[in-house]
Design goal:
32 strands; mainly beta; five-stranded antiparallel sheet; Methylamine Dehydrogenase, Chain H
Amino acid sequence: MLVLVRTCLAHISILLLVVAATGVSEPDFVEVQSWQPPRTGWLYVIDATHEGSGARVFLFDAERGEIAGVIRTGYSPDVALSARGDRLYVASALFGCRQPNCDRLTVIDTRLGRVLSTTPIPNRVTYGTYPDASRMAVSADGRTVYVLTWQGPPSGDAPVALAAFDALRARFLDGAIDLGPCGGGGFVPATDDSHLGFLCPASNEAVFYRLTAPDRATFEFSVRLPWGKRLFAQHVYTDVSARAFMLSADRRGLYVAGGDGAVSEVNLALGSVRETLVPGDRNEVVAPFASPGALEPARFYVAVGPYDGRGTAREIRVFDTNTWARLGTIRTSAPFRTGVATKDGSVIYALTANRAGVLAIDAVAQRELRAMPLGRAPSLALIAP
């Protein structure tokens, strides 16, 4: 009997050594594999490949076209960045996890490239194949991180809420901001730091809340946005939700790019919406675009492609937000999934679909500068402040 026990213990010890050597015990651990302190204008890019544990977040120097840092993540990664850029928040699901609440929120010191904490996320809303917009946001003071979560079994009509993560104490607060059956949307710019805006794609509504505490808010108003149209099988469907948002210079208005390319304006003081002179096209589709424009000069960018089932854009249309005249069209060398513009709107970065890379675009000269390879499936980017 004693010999049998010793034999079993020996086998267990060998198994543990093999697991430790192969890393099987923690295939989901978020790890900073290489790092340089980020500089203003560098990109944090989600590479949402689903091959094993291959998902990554790259720190990318777009001026040189070089990778400056690599973060290995779990499944369905999402990122948010503090206003000062000193903290990066990475949400991802554990590979191979068969237990409830497999998602984790990892806090990274961007100067040192060091993991500060990892916290379970209750019922995070994940995306399908690729992210079209981040479902996380950081408050202006950097103290709270908001993460979209399910309030019941995940489904299209299940209610969702914004869970509030206390960045100072590294824990989720008890309260949550109830959004109702909103669906897996994304954040919308609000008038000031005491408000939160969110797009509910199920109803194509922009909903706005006033924060009363980091994990509490009161509903203020919602605006039903014009649905985009699409042509499929010789039938016109009016069911494409909004794709991109930008605040006006006085922060009282919100410019909205619809799913078919039509542009509308939301009056945030009155809670009303009006259509502009920019029409939509049922044969076209709009790709998601973060910070899509410039305030000086007043510009709004709309990324458009053919409605072919791929959801990618082939060109960027530039509009004057004072007159809504089209000032130009920037055609890209490859179709792209999403775009992001620098704070002043002078440079646009587009993440390509079939070439796996980043396109750098001069928005002032309205021309593509260069195409840079990156990862396998670059899908969403943030720009370091």
